[in-house]
Design a protein that fits this description.
Elements lengths: L1 H12 L18 H10 L3 H16 L2 E6 L1 H17 L3 E9 L5 E9 L7 H37 L13
Antiparallel strand pairs: 1-3, 2-3
Helix pairs in contact: 1-5, 2-3, 2-5, 3-5
């Protein structure tokens, strides 16, 4: 769990240009422990991101959130914003999710029923969700990078991929 905490601390320290709310008491994010467990167990990324969005939607109320990955953003972000406006929703928050190297991992978009800005407590919740999303996305990227490297290493020395053991009953 210490690794999760250091990743979350890293993510919160590396969100650029974020003003900190003046209220210093911690805001409780209801599903944070469950989502941390999903990340540490290596749950599928779409499930983790869905849990994050659902949790913040429920906790803030009257909002709809989504996480866009960089390869999806060009084609879907503009369409999503247009659709939201046509349905009477307005942008509530839009925050980039950055890697350790400050590369774009994704964007958290939140649309609200009422045209307003997040309160300081809601802002803290959004930052916590962005931190958890950054950890999940970074771990997913690291895992993909490792698999790609291992595959290249096997191919370069002429090894075939390991076979799965036969089913034993």
């Amino acid at each position: 769990m210490a690794d999760d905490e250091s990743d979350t601390k890293w993510a919160s320290e590396n969100i650029p240009s974020r003003r900190q709310p003046t209220d210093s008491r911690p805001v409780q994010f209801a599903e944070e422990k469950h989502i941390r467990e999903l990340i540490s167990l290596g749950a599928p990324l779409p499930g983790i991101l869905n849990e994050l969005c659902t949790a913040i939607d429920v906790q803030i109320g009257n909002v709809v959130s989504l996480v866009w990955l960089p390869d999806e953003m060009d084609s879907h972000l503009y369409t999503s914003a247009q659709s939201a406006m046509q349905m009477g929703l307005s942008i509530f928050s839009s925050v980039c999710i950055l890697s350790r190297e400050e590369a774009l991992l994704g964007t958290l978009e939140i649309y609200g029923c009422d045209p307003r800005r997040p309160t300081p407590d809601e802002y803290q919740l959004i930052v916590r969700v962005v931190n958890l999303a950054a950890v999940a996305l970074q771990r997913h990227k690291d895992s993909e990078d490792f698999e790609r490297f291992a595959r290249q290493a096997r191919n370069s020395i002429g090894l075939s991929p390991p076979e799965k053991p036969p089913f034993i009953n």
